[in-house]
Amino acid sequence: MVTPILPLTMSSAVVKRRGQTLLGPVDLDISAQGFTIVMGPNGAGKTKLLRALHGIERLAAGKVTWQVPVGDTQDRQAFVFQAPIMLRRSVRDNLAYPLRLRGVAKSEAFARAADWAQRVGLGDALDRSAPRLSGGEKQKLALARALIGEPDILFLDEPCANLDGRATREIEAILKDAQAGGTRIVMATHDMGQARRLAEDIVFLMHGQVIERGPAQAFFAGPQTPQARALLQGDIVE
Amino acid sequence: MGEIWEGLIAGFWLVVSLDADLVEVTLRSLQVTLTAVVIASAIGLPFGAWLAIRRFRHRRATIALLNALMGLPPVVVGLIVYLLLSRSGPFGVFNLLFTPTAMIIAQVIIITPLIASIAHQAIRDIWADYHDLLISLSTSKIQRIKTLLWDGRRALITASLAGFGRAIGEVGAIMIVGGNIDNATRVLTTAIALETGKGDFALALGLGFVLIGLAVAVNLAIHAIGQTESEGKW
Ligand SMILES: Nc1ncnc2c1ncn2[C@@H]1O[C@H](COP(=O)(O)OP(=O)(O)OP(=O)(O)O)[C@@H](O)[C@H]1O
Ligand SMILES: [Mg+2]
């Protein structure tokens, strides 16, 4: 049995740009199990928080601690970016890429790529050029490419932003499957309905600060802060 | 007018009948230019890629210098190489002046900045695109460079072809360092200059056809690569 990498602890993490504090200080625990939804208005710092947890954002202060050295976690984490990044290759090669990096043989990598393409509804698109896909198809491809390595934790930055209702439902099903398979999920979204459907716990961000944090049920039933209450009532929060 | 027309027909016949002089000069042109392109690509492509990925202190200045070097007048390059290789120059002992090697050296100096600059731009664009993903996947430096070179391969081929196009039609520098010696350093461009001066328009035009053919072929190839790139066929 491999050592688990979770839970994950972020302590007094701060992200700055040109002297301006964009995030933090944030203290946050990510437990071993669950589905965390990160909410907050545009510019609240959701992307920065996810990137900082994933370890691709330079911290001006504070740290992120895993159960094993961070170098051993990198192959077991995955990230789906807000704007999907497509390699200038075919769909098949995009899907196989993370596996090929880890030395998986080409034939096996391609077989798994075909399987994942099928699961996200891109089964017929394997030979198409990834940069030529539609916005929604790109997001599905990015999700499949993140899950193909069977990560222990998956960060998603608004993965359904350009998807129609049906595709959103499919993606949500895939995410629930992944969670059932043991993948910890941390996801930012603006979609209140999606948050209600998926969240087990909520992180509510504003102006780079976590202002509310807790189980989803409690959050939706009785938000503690006026900002969260306003958000749930459908008001514009700023 | 009649003279030109006759020249055109005669030149055409020289090409069709594979005239011995014409073939020899063409082959030498190709040999010199292809060698120069291979060497310049071996230097310019990795250097351009490296410039795109590495952050270092004088990066901007280096890029500006590279772009400035692209505009070097070939005649001046020829003059400098001539001085370096001439008997009294620092490399005079190698006796390279008026040899194909001297011509290759001059061409390498002329086209390396061009190739490096095109490669740099292409790889820089891809790197900007891929940066977050490649960091997120914790790729090693080698893996990153491999990925960028592979996905940028069309642009890199284009860079080499552009170098070829520039070198094959170049006349000033290789005239100076090669000397346009019959059976030794005469190439398409210098032969055209000579035959035109002598008034032998048939051979000059025949050589001209070959040169135009090569230039068109190269540009068609560049265009075709750009086409497959924009349609994402590869
Ligand atoms: N490189 C940067 N330089 C300066 N400011 C930045 C930079 N990157 C992000 N910011 C700012 O940091 C703040 C938080 O950005 P972040 O992308 O985390 O917001 P977000 O919550 O993800 O917003 P959205 O919902 O629009 O995606 C924003 O105000 C943004 O303008
Ligand atoms: Mg964001």
Topology:
The complex is a heterodimer of chains A (238) and B (234).
Chain A: E1 8-17, E2 20-30, E3 35-39, H1 46-54, E4 61-65, E5 77-80, H2 91-101, H3 106-119, H4 135-147, E6 153-157, H5 165-180, E7 184-188, H6 192-198, E8 201-206, E9 209-215, H7 216-221, H8 226-232
Parallel strand pairs in A: 3-7, 3-8, 5-6, 6-7
Antiparallel strand pairs in A: 1-2, 1-4, 8-9
Helix pairs in contact in A: 2-3, 2-4
Chain B: H1 2-16, H2 20-53, H3 59-70, H4 74-85, H5 100-136, H6 141-151, H7 153-168, H8 172-178, H9 188-198, H10 201-231
Helix pairs in contact in B: 1-10, 2-5, 2-7, 3-5, 4-5, 4-8, 5-6, 5-7, 5-8, 7-10, 9-10
The structure holds adenosine-5'-triphosphate and magnesium ion (MG).
The strand count of chain B comes to 0
Q: What is the ordering of alpha helices and beta strands of chain B?
A: HHHHHHHHHH
Number of helices of chain B: 10
Total domain count of chain B: 1
Which structural class best describes the helix and strand composition of chain A?
alpha/beta
What is the rounded distance between the termini of chain A?
Answer: 47 Å
Tell the overall outline of chain B.
globular
Strand content of chain B: under 5%
CATH topology of chain B: MetI-like fold
Low-confidence stretches of chain B: none
Describe this structure in words.
The complex is a heterodimer of chains A (238) and B (234). In chain A, helix 2 (91-101) packs across helix 3 (106-119) and helix 2 runs parallel beside helix 4. Chain A has a domain at 8-85 and 152-232: 3-Layer(aba) Sandwich (Rossmann fold). Chain A has helices at residues 46-54, 91-101, 106-119, 135-147, 165-180, 192-198, 216-221, 226-232, and strands spanning 8-17, 20-30, 35-39, 61-65, 77-80, 153-157, 184-188, 201-206, 209-215. In chain A, strand 1 (8-17) and strand 2 form a beta hairpin. Chain A has 8 helices and 9 strands. With 238 residues, chain A is an alpha/beta fold. The longest helix of chain A is centred in the last third of the chain and has 16 residues, at 165-180. With 234 residues, chain B is mainly alpha-helical. Chain B has one domain (2-224): Orthogonal Bundle (MetI-like fold). Chain B has 10 helices and no strands. Chain B has helices at residues 2-16, 20-53, 59-70, 74-85, 100-136, 141-151, 153-168, 172-178, 188-198, 201-231. The chains are: A alpha/beta (238), B mainly alpha (234). At the A-B interface, helix 2 of A face helix 5 and helix 6 of B. Bound molecules: adenosine-5'-triphosphate and magnesium ion.
